[in-house]
Specification:
heterodimer; A: mainly alpha; globular; B: about 75% helix
Chain lengths: ~150, ~290
Amino acid sequence: MTASIPGGLPGSATGAGSARSSQEPGPADPARPAGLEHTIARLLTTGTYASIALLVVGVVLMVVNGIGPLSGGPAFDLGRLGPDLVALRPAGFLWLGLLAVVATPTARVAASLVGYARRGERAMTLVAALILFVIAASVALAQALEG
Amino acid sequence: MIEGALLLAGGVGAGLFGSLLGLGGGILIVPLLTLAFGLPLLTAVGISLICVIVNSSAAAGVFLERRVANLRLGMTLELFTACGALVGGLVAFLLPERLLEGLFTVLLVYVAITMARRRETPSPPPPAAAPPTEDPPGASVDDRDPGTELGGHAFIAQLSGPGYRVRRLGLGIVGSVFAGVASALLGIGGGLIKVPVMHVIMGVPLRVATATSNLMIGITASASAIIYLLRGGIDPYAAAPTAIGVFIGASIGSRIASRIDLRLLRGLFVAILLYTAWQMLQRAIA
């Protein structure tokens, strides 16, 4: 089996963007509306850059405040997020950035749900709803185990 | 300050290597954080999941824009990778760290062997040489679609793309659950499992399988990252410079990939993986 090990950004050695060939078909279908894919792509890109920007601000604040990266950061506390952001504490920006990282794919699924529902694709709408249910179950179970 | 720069540099290296060799980066980040920076394995896995999501979101946006990734297939399978990741994320906190280190050692050796055996493929094989992507002539939908039991012809047709038809959806679902568990336990994207499952078993073209797997990694890793995040398994101070580094490294890698001699790089990478596996094994049995 010579299937490549996946991952990496498009354009990488084995990334899908590296060797577009007319011999190997892709899913692009001119008859299929591209609006949803375009919207989701924009959402993912924007979410990634926003996350990285927040993390960069947090790291800059760490440096300014003389905080080492291996000094042990505070655990996540939703109640402290707002005050930390207002007080320009690094933890606020770092946690907001990390939340944005985790939330970006979920937002992609939520956008897909709306898009498929509008198109009347019931099966895919159901799939998207079930994915969101699993994500919600992750949150609920983790909170229950911590509590 | 120096530690932050080293974490950033380590992240850049992991992202660069991962991007050049077609990896998500998780396979390098976990050993880097545990062996070089002394972080507990669970913390390293949590941080790795964050890095993997960043990489996936950035790449998936481009793949979707180019219409390479199959959104319908990806969403259908990621429902099951997310279920696996949910279970794996919960189990990870119950397993002894040494067992996880042992599992990671096995993973490192597997990737090293896969890398060492990989042949240069400057261009994809012609359709005649790639039977998994083609249905046998004359095959009926019922012959080739166990997935009809799972949702019917229309749904299978929706998941397929031009030039290929998705097969064996049931096996794909099983593989996806397994990939989700592995992702949550080891902090990897799980593409090591998903791409072969989609390409070899389900008949999805390699290029589409790779892009679709990348799309799926975001939700797969998110389902378990949420558990790590809420249960104190993610250290924001260590996670941020590493994630930024991985993002920078992967961005650079995607731009210079065509100018790098990958054979030399691959040999070096196999050596690094085997050395890391040895270090991880010693840690596991110490």
